[in-house]
């Protein structure tokens, strides 16, 4: 069996009309993922709706609609093969969905394209997008200056946008000098896969080339082993099989593990008996692998979704309370002390109460603007103290970034996103 190319999760973020879906669709089409006859159908559909040029956006929308209907998507659609990598594209429709997807761990992005429309330039949400990418730990970023066709492919317009975005990058602590800016047009296909003939002045990579230029993803195999449980199955002849993605570390046969919090809250001890991946028995599995395992000493009643299987020698803490840095994204009114929404952390969902609003932080500089604010509103970034109303396994950003991020949800919406910076362990 040929070794699979390394996967890289890439997210496209940007203002509503910046043209993210068009760039993604065009990339899929030009690189041969979407066949010509499929494209023809989408083109006719776009014309019928009076939306000429929308056919590329329809490629991603088709996936979205299939997602909403819960149909399995033809995998080729989301996977893109480049010379060096297999790219999984996470299309972020609105930044709110994006945040939810980014934090729940299902789709931690390794790299991001921030799409800016050349005619519009920097938009109010641009700062927010950058701040969120930063909070979510996305290190590798490229700026796609799209719709160059709408500004007659002029270099000075590109430079003007580059300057504006560069200033914002500096504000959120990203080095603008080391960030790649691509001049492109998703609609016309300039610098998407092929080099554009319309911009001789542009010497940088195309979108397609950029996928392979992002630095390699370092798998966090050096951190302690953590496997949040997604589901638990009973399989005849094997027994109880927890399934999930190993977030960090390496799991080996015979390894001594602990399931936390587990049914009792004190954790349950066990030993890894079998590891299975893609229907093959493995000797070991590592960060990034999705596996099904059988643990000696752990039965169906002992383990559930939201538990974390970790190495016994270095277990994940169960917290009494914790301090987090959060960004408020979408709260109906204002967020005040005493508020108790549901925190989504790795695969767990636990109600937690905000017991103290410690300080409000300026998202642009990271400086404290206000001590003990009375409330927080959309767009605010703050340091808060939180008390779980149930058992919660959580680590700090410093100890393990992969098990420190969370989304705060209430009534079906993502209210805030954040990361844990300090914990008080349960006695």
Write a structural description.
By secondary structure, the protein is an alpha+beta fold. It has 3 domains: 7-213, Rossmann fold (3-Layer(aba) Sandwich), CATH 3.40.50; 226-311, Translation factors (Elongation Factor Tu (Ef-tu), domain 3, Beta Barrel); 319-425, Beta Barrel (Elongation Factor Tu (Ef-tu), domain 3). It is built from 7 helices and 24 strands. The chain has helices at residues 20-30, 36-48, 55-69, 95-103, 124-135, 155-171, 207-213, and strands spanning 7-14, 79-81, 86-91, 111-117, 140-146, 180-183, 226-235, 239-245, 250-252, 256-260, 268-277, 280-282, 284-286, 290-296, 308-311, 319-328, 335-336, 342-345, 348-361, 368-371, 375-376, 381-388, 405-410, 413-425. The radius of gyration is 23 Å and the shape is globular.
Average pLDDT figure: 84
* Distance N to C terminus: 50 Å
What strand order characterises the main sheet?
A: 2-3-1-4-5-6
Q: Domains counted in the coordinates: how many?
A: 3
Task: Please count the helical segments.
Answer: 7
Shape field? globular
Gyration radius, in Å: 23 Å
Major sheet attributes: 6 strands, mixed
The CATH class assignment of the largest domain is Alpha Beta
In short:
The protein is α+β, with helices and mostly antiparallel strands. The protein has helices spanning 20-30, 36-48, 55-69, 95-103, 124-135, 155-171, 207-213, and strands at residues 7-14, 79-81, 86-91, 111-117, 140-146, 180-183, 226-235, 239-245, 250-252, 256-260, 268-277, 280-282, 284-286, 290-296, 308-311, 319-328, 335-336, 342-345, 348-361, 368-371, 375-376, 381-388, 405-410, 413-425. It is built from 7 helices and 24 strands.
